[in-house]
């Protein structure tokens, strides 16, 4: 993989506590350990694309705060080919509080999206040159939908291949899905989008048909250990 990939998506500062069990309401629980790390679906997927060999331009928005300074240092160290960081002066950098419990690593997560949800039309307009020179543009749903739609419109106008990872799921118009070249929900997201249980390849095939009916051209539904289903305009 050596094409140009532009990723517009979230950056979050993750604070993780390892606990033997989850606390109950009102309880203070001593953790077994803790760590901090960079997160956010956008930054994570941009990193994955870079490791796969792509030329990656990451676009995200942070706050002018301690977590934002961490984001700058981290993203510089990742080695992206280019980074565009928009800055919110009065809104914090997105952050997540995560409990990881027990040997099975079950988790509970509370996310404050912060600056991720405040991207303006003018800010996206300033990013159009970067979007326009990409072969592939990847977006998620962890930013405000108005900005995501503007990025997708700019990508389509430039002839780029648009990939949407619909997480975390929020309702979108079918007209928006019709602009996406590849939709990549997991089983849970596919279920939320179609109103059905997706727990097998056969169920995923039915969900893919429903997603095509909503406007999606090509669909990959991931099923964890059960694999994944690819449906190219209905051909599976």
UniProtKB/TrEMBL annotation:
GO molecular function: ATP binding; metal ion binding; ribokinase activity
Gene Ontology terms: biological process: D-ribose metabolic process
Keywords assigned by UniProt, alphabetized: ATP-binding, Carbohydrate metabolism, Kinase, Magnesium, Metal-binding, Nucleotide-binding, Potassium, Transferase
Occurrences of domain Carbohydrate kinase PfkB (ranges): 4-233
InterPro entries: PfkB_dom, Ribo/fructo_kinase, Ribokinase, Ribokinase-like
GO cellular component: cytosol
Top-level taxon of origin: Bacteria
Protein name: Ribokinase
Species: Klebsiella michiganensis
Lineage: Bacteria, Pseudomonadati, Pseudomonadota, Gammaproteobacteria, Enterobacterales
């Amino acid at each position: 993989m050596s094409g140009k990939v532009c990723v517009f998506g979230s950056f979050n500062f993750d604070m993780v506590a390892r606990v033997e069990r989850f606390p109950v309401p009102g309880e203070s629980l001593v953790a077994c350990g803790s760590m901090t790390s960079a997160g956010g679906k956008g930054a994570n997927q941009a990193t994955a694309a870079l490791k796969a060999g792509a030329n990656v331009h990451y676009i995200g928005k942070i706050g002018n705060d301690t977590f934002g300074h961490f984001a700058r240092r981290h993203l510089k160290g990742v080695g992206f080919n280019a980074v565009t960081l928009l800055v919110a002066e009065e809104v914090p950098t997105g952050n997540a509080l995560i409990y990881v419990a027990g040997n099975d690593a079950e988790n509970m997560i509370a996310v404050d999206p912060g600056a991720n949800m405040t991207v303006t039309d003018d800010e996206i307009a300033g990013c159009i040159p970067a979007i326009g020179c990409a072969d592939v543009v990847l977006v998620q749903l962890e930013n405000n939908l108005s900005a995501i739609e503007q990025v997708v419109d700019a990508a389509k106008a430039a002839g780029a291949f648009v990939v949407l990872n619909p997480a975390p799921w929020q309702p979108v118009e079918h007209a928006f899905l019709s602009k996406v070249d590849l939709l990549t929900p997991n089983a849970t997201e596919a279920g939320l989008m179609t109103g059905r249980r997706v727990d097998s390849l056969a169920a995923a095939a039915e969900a893919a048909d429903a997603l095509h009916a909503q406007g999606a051209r090509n669909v990959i539904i991931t099923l964890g250990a059960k694999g994944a289903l690819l449906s190219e305009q209905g051909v599976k």
